[in-house]
């Protein structure tokens, strides 16, 4: 019974329980207002700023990658234009070279034809001259051998 009497006093609810219960609620209310709410606001603000900075960093990275892509595309386009320009210049130079070679070939062919014609004329003139001289020499030789005059033009 002594144990029950002590147990009854420990477990008994009296007016002090109500005061402790109310003071705990008041302390929770005061701590929420003065301590927990400002700390939670600071933590929320920190998280918001961190997430904001992270999203800003992601956005800047996306902009960087977009600009890098545009830059690489411009470089590739410039290279393609340069290669196309070089190819066009090469073709034009090759065409000009071919035209010049054809022109020089034609001019050389004309000069060769003129030289052949000149050589043919000179050969014909030389043949005619040699033939005339040969007849004259033959007439001189014949007249010396036969001791009589022989005409150079006759047979």
Please state the structural category. mainly alpha
Helix count equals: 2
Terminal CA distance reads: 188 Å
Radius of gyration: 62 Å
Helix content: over 70%
Shape: rod-shaped
Unreliable stretches (pLDDT < 50, length at least 5) are: 1-7
The average pLDDT score comes to 85
Residues in β-strands, percent: under 5%
How many strands?
A: 0
| Main beta-sheet strand count, sense and barrel state | none
**String of helices and strands:** HH
Labels describing this entry:
rod-shaped; single chain
Description:
There is one protein chain. The chain contains two helices and no strands. It is mainly α. The chain has a domain at 28-118. It is rod-shaped. The N and C termini lie far apart (188 Å). The model is unreliable at 1-7 (pLDDT under 50).
Furnish the topology, listing elements before pairings:
Elements lengths: L1 H10 L3 H132 L9
Short description:
The protein is mainly α and 155 residues long. The protein has two helices and no strands. The N and C termini lie far apart (188 Å).
